[in-house]
Amino acid sequence: MASLVVSGEHPELKRLFVSEDARGVGPAGNLLDAVEKHARDASARVIQLETGNLSDAAIALYEKRGYRHIPRFGGYVGSQSSVCMELKLSPRARRFGVTAVVRTAALTPNGRARHTRPRRGLATRQ
Description:
Layout lengths: L1 E6 L2 E7 L10 H15 L4 E7 L3 H9 L3 E3 L11 E7 L12 E7 L5 E3 L11
Parallel strand pairs: 2-3
Antiparallel strand pairs: 1-2, 1-6, 3-5, 4-5, 6-7
């Protein structure tokens, strides 16, 4: 499962989770592909994320995918257990005119990402 929350200028990857037995065999990469495509399609400039400083496998995955370490942002400022990263997507981006949009991708049984619709009750992209 992966969730991308858009608020202000930069979307944030809030959740990326695959089961223990699926780690290291591709599903996390498939989910990241889906999330990154959605962000690019929405003209995002970057994707930001926060993960725990003990999440070595997650940090290694993000680094391998081109995410770079950045200073802590938002609610993570001052959190010693937070590691913040971002991926630059495109130089031709525009700002989002939304309060919050949550887009979720889940894996099908064959390990491919399946998008779900934004959750009811949240603002949609203007």
